[in-house]
Structures are given as C-alpha cells and as structure tokens.
C-alpha cells in the first residue's frame, strides 16, 4: 500500500513545483475538534482532534485528513486523498479520485485503498450522489447528500446538511457481523466569517445505522464540534 501513498505524494510535489501562476494554487487548512468520531453511521472514537490540509490546482485537489483521539486505547487515523473535478456544464460537476486510509497504530496491513466517483448539482440544496469501492475490504458504499446555507447576517451563516448511505461488505472478508447496513447523518453549524479566507464554526451532528453497529450496540449518536479554517 506504500506505493499508493508515494503516488499521491508525488502528485502533491508536482503541484507544488508547478511554475504556473500563484493564483492557480489554493491551500485550505482546518483544525477541528469533535466530541465523537463517526464514520458512515458508526462511532469509531470519542473526543478527537481532526486537523486537515488540502491543496488545489485548477480542477485537481490533494489532501490529508487525520483523526487524533484524546482517549487512550483509540487508534489514530491518517487519510491521504486526491481527485479531479470536471464541470459537465454550468450546473453539474463530476468528481472522481481515491483515498488511502492509514491506521498507524494497527499492526500488520494497516491501510486500505478506496476509489470514488460522484456527481453534484449546483442548485438550492446542492444534491450529490457518490459511489465508493474499497479494494482491500471489498466494500461498496453509496451515499446521497444535500446541503444549504442560511444567511444570518453579513458575517455569519447557518449551514445545514443531510446524508444517507448504504454499505455492502464482502462476506468472505467480513466474517463477523452484518455484511450490509444503511446509515444516515445530519448536521447544523453556525459559521462566522473572520475574513474572506478564514472562519469559525460550531455545531451539532447526529448519525446512525440500522444494524446497531457501534460501542455497546449503539445505533445512533448525537455530538458536537467546532473548527477554525483558513485558505490561502
């Protein structure tokens, strides 16, 4: 799997060494804290720091996202991802790429590779539909989402989001537990813009699944989080 990480790193170096105009390159950073870490309807950790950085060059993007739990015994996670967004017209955008999920605290083969393809529609609720395939766990995931921002005043918004998905796992890889499940998610964040490129956000989230997957068989979660993000 190291070859996948090296390939994504090489892509990042190519972007960084480009001699094109500076305005073609964007950098977005984010530092977040979440009282729970829930991924596709399943709680994986409690209180966690989630710093991230993403580089963009025209329609290409490359990023790194991490989950660093504050409790002992929970595993760290580092995700490397890259992709390309192609505008089909002035409303529809196609997005495709890949993510390497790396778990440095897990012995043995501690990373997986997942590819994705999705389409979004630039309208009131910004609907999108994505499909994912993890080559190591042989899992298909399909997710639909909508989002909308409500203007509060000149410097703040309320951002709302809804999502629902379906995961199908290969029964030859997953020997214990369900091989398929449905999940949902919802969020509401108050976002305050410090400047054109920096903002603060605080909000609540809820998420769950239909198979009681989670600590002590919990099938749903309600938690909060806050973040600071800045672009360059």
What does the model show?
By secondary structure, the chain is mainly β. It has a single domain, classed as monomeric porin ompg (Porin, Beta Barrel). It is 6% helix and 61% strand. The strands form two sheets. Strands 1, 4, 5, 6, 7, 8, 9, 10, 11, 12, 13, 14 and 15 form a 13-stranded antiparallel sheet that branches. The chain has a two-stranded antiparallel ribbon with strand order 2-3. A hairpin with a 2-residue loop joins strand 2 (37-39) and strand 3.
Question: Main attributes?
Answer:
single chain; 232 residues; mainly beta; Porin; 13-stranded antiparallel sheet; two-stranded antiparallel sheet; 1 helix; 15 strands; 6% helix; 61% strand
Question: Could you provide a short overview of the structure?
Answer:
It is built from one helix and 15 strands, in the order αβββββββββββββββ. By secondary structure, the chain is mostly beta strands. The protein has one domain (2-16, 23-227): Porin, CATH 2.40.160.40.
Number of discrete helical segments: 1
- The CATH level-2 architecture is identified as Beta Barrel
Q: What is the fold named in CATH at topology level?
A: Porin
Tally of extended strands?
15
Largest sheet: 13 strands, antiparallel
Estimated structural class? mainly beta
What level of helicity do the residues show?
A: under 10%
Mean pLDDT: 89
CATH top level assignment:
Mainly Beta
What's the order of the H and E elements? Answer: HEEEEEEEEEEEEEEE
Indicate the overall shape. globular
Beta percentage is: over 45%
Full CATH superfamily name: monomeric porin ompg
Unreliable runs, pLDDT <50, ≥5 residues? 5-20
In the residues, how many domains can be counted? 1
Could you state the oligomeric state of the chains shown? single chain
- Radius of gyration using CA atoms only: 18 Å
């Amino acid at each position: 799997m190291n070859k996948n990480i090296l390939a994504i790193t090489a892509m990042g170096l190519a972007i960084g060494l480009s001699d094109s105009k500076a305005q073609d390159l964007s950098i977005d950073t984010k530092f977040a804290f979440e009282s729970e870490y829930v991924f596709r309807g399943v709680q994986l950790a409690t209180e966690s720091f989630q710093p991230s950085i993403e580089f963009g060059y025209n329609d290409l993007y490359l990023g790194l996202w991490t989950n660093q739990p504050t409790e002992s015994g929970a595993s760290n996670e580092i995700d490397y991802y890259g992709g390309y967004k192609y505008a089909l017209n002035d409303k529809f955008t196609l997005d495709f790429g890949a993510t390497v999920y790396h778990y440095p605290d897990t012995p043995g083969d501690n990373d997986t590779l997942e590819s994705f393809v999705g389409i979004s529609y630039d309208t009131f609720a910004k609907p999108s539909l994505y499909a994912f395939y993890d080559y190591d766990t042989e899992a298909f995931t399909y997710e639909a989402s909508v989002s909308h921002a409500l203007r509060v005043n000149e410097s703040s918004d309320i951002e709302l989001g809804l999502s629902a998905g379906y995961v199908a796992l290969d029964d030859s890889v997953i020997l214990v537990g369900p091989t398929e499940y449905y999940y949902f998610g919802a969020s509401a964040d108050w976002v305050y813009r410090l400047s054109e490129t920096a903002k603060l956000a605080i909000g609540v989230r809820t998420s769950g699944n239909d198979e009681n997957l989670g600590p002590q068989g919990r099938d749903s979660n309600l938690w909060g989080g806050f973040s600071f993000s800045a672009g360059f």
